[in-house]
Every structure is written in C-alpha cells, then in structure tokens.
Amino acid sequence: MDGGRVSGNAETIWRGACMKYDVEIQLRVKHRQVDFGGFLPGNWEEIDPNRKHPAVILLAGGAYWRRSSREKEPVALKLLGYGISPWILEYSVAPETFPQSLCEVLTAVEWLREHSDEYGIDGENISVCGFSAGGHLAASAGCLWDRDFIQEMLGDPGVLVRPDKVALCYPVITAGPYAHQESIRCLLGDKAEDETCRRLVSLEHQVGAGMPPVFLWHTAEDASVPVQNSLLFAMAVAAQGKELELHIYPHGRHGLSTGDFTANAGLEPGDAYGCAGWVEKAAAFFCGTGKK
Q1: pLDDT by residue (tens digit) across 100-150?
Q2: Residue 112: inside a domain
Q3: Domain span including residue 57
Q4: Is 68 within a domain?
Q5: Does 137 map to a domain?
Q6: 229-235 contacts, C-beta under 8 A, 24 or more apart
Q7: pTM for the full model?
Q8: Number of structural domains, the chain?
C-alpha cells in the first residue's frame, strides 16, 4: 500500500477474493492433511451472550475429483445468517479412494465436538451437509460411522464421530442402475468394478440403526444425478423408522447450490429458482432438536 492506494490488479484481487475463516486448521487423517475452516456466529449481551450454536460441516460436490466453490461459501453465508456455524472441509478426492474422505469427515465431526465449548458450538448438534458427490460422502458418514473397519481406522472413537443430523442436496447415493458412474469410479479407483465394493457404497443398502435424522432435497429434472438416488435413500431411511424430511422440486438442473443469484450465473439479484427455499427448511432442520 502506498499513499492510501492499494497496489496490484484490482480484477485479479477481486476474482480471488473470499471471506476469511474465523477458524482455520489442518486435520491429520491417516496419511493426509486436509484444510478445515469455519465461520462463528456472534453472541450479543442483549440477546444471549452464552448461546451455543448448531454447527454444519459442508461437503461440496464434484464427482469425487474436485470440490465445487458454488457449494462452499455461498451456502456457508446463508447458514451463518440463521445463527448456524458453518464449516467447510476440503476433503480428499481422486486419486485418493474410499474410505479416506469418509475418515476425514468423521474426524472433523469429532474435532468439532471436542472443541465445541471453545467455539460456542452445541456439541450435541453437529450436522453434515453434502452436495452431489459430497452428498454421498455425507450420507456415508451417517450410514457407516459405526462400522467396525471405520472405527478401527479412527482408533475406536465410538459415537464421538457420529453426525447428529445429515442433510443431502441432490446426492449421489447408489452404484446401481441410477448411479452417477463418474463419482463411483473416482471414489473406488481400481476397485470400481468390484461388486462387493459397489454394494458397500450403494448407500440405500447401508442404512442401519445408527442412522441420524435425514434432510433430503432433489429436483425431478436433474439430468446428471437422477432423482431416484434420493428416492432410494428416502425409502431406506423410512424403512428403518428414522426421522426423514424429503423435498422433491419439479424443476431445476443439477448443482443449483443455494438456488439463487449468489451461486448461479444468469440470474439477477433477487432472482431464484423454485428450490431456493431449501435453505430455510434446512436451517430449521439443523436448529431443531428432533429425534436423535
């Protein structure tokens, strides 16, 4: 800075800009280090200076080979406005394969639980929210957290790694007839044709007694990840008698994120798709007590 002026190319600075996390750490999981950052809602003396906030770990989509920016900060800032503490996990993608990213998510849940008092978080209300392939990862956290092979990899932490709630946004669920094959290939790597592995990551077959409450939304027109993925999972959750909230919107393409101007090109400020109401519904789900 010179004489009150900012040096550098303004367009370059603007294009690379993003909000600074209130907390930013690296989690060591097996052989990998992954970035994990969160935003902390404020507390005010005139309202409740000791308020504990729900926390949500956001898992962006990207077919298990990347993580889409549209499903990170735009969603986080929406949730922050509801008094929710949003956290973004830069989980591992290809060439890393199952169950590395799952172990990272569960480690993030445990870390937040252990540091909940430090950051004003309700340690009994820590959710995961995933989009597309990130939805598969979030659903995996709900389905597989208590499996022996996962617990053993994590050092037998028990229920500390169990997410309290799971929100799935146009998720990849199955490796069966309605699969998003690219996601399954990237997730399983050289085991992508192994039927035992494919069934393990076909999460409609993996819902068990330990499944947390589930919030699901999808669009019927999704041409990338068919809506049948959400329907299959909803039926499996219902069959277990677990808490379920399901929203199927008639119109909209895949990957709409917040469903409004903040995360979608071609919209004017104030414009939104019909599915944009999912954020408010999900915020109520995250903040509510519900059945555990």
Answers
A1: 999 999 999 999 999 999 999 999 999 999 999 999 999 999 999 999 999
A2: yes
A3: 24-287
A4: yes
A5: yes
A6: 229/171, 229/172, 229/173, 229/174, 229/178, 229/180, 230/168, 230/170, 230/171, 230/173, 232/173, 232/174, 232/178, 232/204, 233/139, 233/168, 233/171, 233/173, 233/203, 233/204, 233/207, 235/204
A7: 0.92
A8: 1
